[in-house]
């Protein structure tokens, strides 16, 4: 049985291996990944990140790091956010490479970041659609029944008001006003505009021609408009005096953006959307059998370079659902490439005799088959055993080819798990398409088991991980952390910073220094030094991970007001000076100069307590 993860320890370990908090400029997440932008990629220890218990894989592209953890991401992100706070979504460190591949990849990442927070609402709509089908088939609830009508309204509202959701996530991504972005989207959905647009043709807005078109379910149009809004926002911040900015900027921002939206970005986004729809219609009419296999091949290559890119293609699915009432492209691709890994993981779990692999494979199978999340299989199994990965791709391709030939359709978003299999049921209880979907599931199950059991693959990599984990656990010994300076002792609960006081980073205590010297509290090796020099971590031979944090809000100090006396990788002894501070600078800027010692991996010890009289933190292994 898989052991329960300690998310607090996991978050602390991830932050440390990412180069500590000071190296992070942006931290976000999608359904399965922690997405981080770092200042200095050289400080990221990808190998160490992969060894953290619960981490399924790591992808590093320039200064963008993705830590793949699967369905635990929400719990883990809460712990990460406690430690790093809410980082600026417009953070520094964007890739400098502007080659075509990089631009395309960055665009997909941008779209994925915008669409990712919207996915829960789309999945909820899918489940509501399944509930309606059950109520109709099992309980005979008619479509005219008030409960049916209200539930259907709830499910369909997600797609009608999708521009409002996307406006919010786009505004967060582009660092502009979320409420004004939502107002812009609501304006495009206002009944009077919808009535005007029904006539078609053109009207004028401030004398400028404006296309009469509806925007319900629109995505690209609102993303373009909010991006323009963010640029106008930046210009207005520079142009308007502070005395009038508070009330004048929102007015000018929404007014100017509204003109550009109706006359430029709205029609332009609609034009692009229409061409995409025409392309999909052409594929549907002339090459439907090849569409899903083609994108599976594409995904199996670019997915290695740009994990999570599939989220960028969700608007294609929502557009199809809104126009023709079904999706026979994106959801079918998800269907083939999500359920297949579930069966692959199940086959691996039944065939393998490796204990650690079984602990990974059984939960991964459940995650894919019933949760619709394939990353635990992909990163925890397939990428580590390439032959298994090829089994998965082959199975997905065969199923995709079958789905294209029979023209399999999904009548709601989220039809890529067994839980939502009813989304393949046709109107008025038509089971023809539903039977096709069940046959597709059968093909995935049979091919997965045949390929996995017929293929010889090496799972010894999991023996190495077991050995490393056991060795890591074996070296953990008791440790004593002594005072980092001469001065007045401050108990953990009395430290002025609530994060330290609550022990969020680990058990700790502080010293209000009476000299300028900062001392090492343990024997060990300097693991990292923050760019601002106000924090450094020390790793002991006994496995203790210790942070010395100099002052509170000390990042506000100048370059020369904290001097480090050691370097990363240097061995240090207890009581050895590791830094010097300018206490007068702290006083002049009214900053708290408390030096705090934190045992970052406190949870790994059986007992941790602080001896207030001796000014020591003692942890028993």
UniProtKB/TrEMBL annotation:
Coiled coil (residue ranges): none
Gene Ontology BP term (one): trehalose transport
Membrane-spanning residues: 118-141, 147-168, 180-199, 205-229, 250-269, 332-350, 388-414, 434-454
Domain PTS EIIA type-1 residues, every copy: 497-601
Keywords tagged on the record: Cell membrane, Kinase, Membrane, Phosphotransferase system, Sugar transport, Transferase, Transmembrane, Transmembrane helix, Transport
Pfam families: PTS_EIIA_1, PTS_EIIB, PTS_EIIC
InterPro entries the UniProt entry points to: Dup_hybrid_motif (IPR011055), Glu_permease_IIB (IPR036878), PTrfase_EIIB_Cys (IPR018113), PTS_EIIA_1_perm (IPR001127), PTS_EIIC (IPR003352), PTS_EIIC_1 (IPR013013), PTS_IIB_1 (IPR001996), PTS_Sugar-Specific_Components (IPR050558)
Matches recorded under PANTHER family: PHOSPHOTRANSFERASE SYSTEM TRANSPORT PROTEIN, PTS SYSTEM ARBUTIN-, CELLOBIOSE-, AND SALICIN-SPECIFIC EIIBC COMPONENT-RELATED
Native organism: Holdemania filiformis DSM 12042
PTS EIIB type-1 domain sequence ranges: 8-90
GO cellular component, one term: plasma membrane
Protein name in the entry: Phosphotransferase system, EIIC
Domain PTS EIIC type-1: 109-471
Localization per Swiss-Prot or TrEMBL: Cell membrane
Membrane topology value: Multi-pass membrane protein
Gene Ontology molecular-function annotations: kinase activity; protein-N(PI)-phosphohistidine-sugar phosphotransferase activity; protein-phosphocysteine-trehalose phosphotransferase system transporter activity
Active site: 30
């Amino acid at each position: 049985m898989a052991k329960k993860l300690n998310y607090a320890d996991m978050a602390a370990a991830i932050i440390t291996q990412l180069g500590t908090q000071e190296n992070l400029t942006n931290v976000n997440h999608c359904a399965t990944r922690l997405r981080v932008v770092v200042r200095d990629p050289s400080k990221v220890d990808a190998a160490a990140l992969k060894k953290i218990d619960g981490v399924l894989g790591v992808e590093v592209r320039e200064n963008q790091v993705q830590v793949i953890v699967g369905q635990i991401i929400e719990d883990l992100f809460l712990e990460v956010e406690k430690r790093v706070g809410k980082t600026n979504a417009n953070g520094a460190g964007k890739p400098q490479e502007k080659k075509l591949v990089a631009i395309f990849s960055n665009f997909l990442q941008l779209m994925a970041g915008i669409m990712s927070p919207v996915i829960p609402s789309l999945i909820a709509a899918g489940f509501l659609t399944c509930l309606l089908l059950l109520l109709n088939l099992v309980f005979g609830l008619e479509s005219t029944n008030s409960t049916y009508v209200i539930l259907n309204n709830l499910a369909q509202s997600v797609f009608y008001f999708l521009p409002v959701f996307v406006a919010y996530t786009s505004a967060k991504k582009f660092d502009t006003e979320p409420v004004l972005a939502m107002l812009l989207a609501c304006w495009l959905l206002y009944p009077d505009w919808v009535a005007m647009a029904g006539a078609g043709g053109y009207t004028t807005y401030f004398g400028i021609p404006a296309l009469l078109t509806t925007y319900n379910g629109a995505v690209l149009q609102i993303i373009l408009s909010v991006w323009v809004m963010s640029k106008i926002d930046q210009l207005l911040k520079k142009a308007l005096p502070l005395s009038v900015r508070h009330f004048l900027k929102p007015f000018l921002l929404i007014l100017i953006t509204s003109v550009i939206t109706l006359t430029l970005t709205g029609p332009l986004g609609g034009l692009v959307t229409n061409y995409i729809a025409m392309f999909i219609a052409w594929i549907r009419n002339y090459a439907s059998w090849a569409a899903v296999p083609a994108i599976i091949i594409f995904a199996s290559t670019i997915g290695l370079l740009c994990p999570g890119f599939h989220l960028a293609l969700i608007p294609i699915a929502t557009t199809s659902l809104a126009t023709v009432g079904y999706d026979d492209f994106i959801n079918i691709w998800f269907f083939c490439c999500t359920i297949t890994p579930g069966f692959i993981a199940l086959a691996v779990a039944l065939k393998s005799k490796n204990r650690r692999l079984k602990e990974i494979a059984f939960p991964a199978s459940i995650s894919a088959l019933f949760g619709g999340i394939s990353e635990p299989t992909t990163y925890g199994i397939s990428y580590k055993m390439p032959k298994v990965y090829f089994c998965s791709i082959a199975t997905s391709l065969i199923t995709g080819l079958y789905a294209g030939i029979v023209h399999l359709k999904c009548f709601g978003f989220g039809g890529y798990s067994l839980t939502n299999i009813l989304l393949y049921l046709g109107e008025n209880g038509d089971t023809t398409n539903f039977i096709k979907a069940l046959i597709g599931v059968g093909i995935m199950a049979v091919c997965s088991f045949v390929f996995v059991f017929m293929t010889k693959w090496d799972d010894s990599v999991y023996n190495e991980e077991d050995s490393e984990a056991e060795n890591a656990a074996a070296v953990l010994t008791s440790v004593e952390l002594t005072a980092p300076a001469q001065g007045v002792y401050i108990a953990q609960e009395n430290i002025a910073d609530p994060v330290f006081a609550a022990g969020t980073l680990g058990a700790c205590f502080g010293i209000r220094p009476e000299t300028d010297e900062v001392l090492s509290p343990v024997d060990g090796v300097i693991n990292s030094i923050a760019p601002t020099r106000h924090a450094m971590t020390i790793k002991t031979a006994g496995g203790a991970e210790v942070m010395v944090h100099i002052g509170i809000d000390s990042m506000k100090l100048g370059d020369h007001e904290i001097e480090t006396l050691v370097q990363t990788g240097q061995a240090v002894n207890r009581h050895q000076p590791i830094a010097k501070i300018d206490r007068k600078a702290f006083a002049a800027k009214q900053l708290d100069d408390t030096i705090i010692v934190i045992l970052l991996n406190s949870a790994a010890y059986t007992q941790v307590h602080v001896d207030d009289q001796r000014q020591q933190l003692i942890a028993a292994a």
